[in-house]
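FW: tagging you since you asked about this chain on Friday. Here's the raw sequence from the shared folder, copied in full. Didn't touch anything.
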Amino acid sequence: MKQIVFIGLVALAISGCHSNSQQTATPAAPTQPIDTVKTLPTALIDNTKDPVCGMPTSAGMEDSVHVGNKVVGFCSKECKDEYLKNPKAYSVVYK
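HL: got it, structure written out here
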């Protein structure tokens, strides 16, 4: 009997986790140092070059993140993802 109850509880826990993963994620709290933001016009980007590949921001930005009080722009989602793995490894040249 204990095994049946245990198996039922495990199945319930797994199904609960699965249903939560399909819900829409809520925005991160503003106290976090890095928040993903929507693509912005280059005039609103604070950096002059993509910190990962070095592409000039004037060529257009595909993605951006908010770091502290600055908006860092990237030429692609891949560059942004690489930056977010270890932001301290990249120096950002601000305007």
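FW: The two ends are 68 Å apart (CA to CA).
HL: agreed, and Residues 2-21 form the longest helix (20 residues).
FW: great, closing this out.
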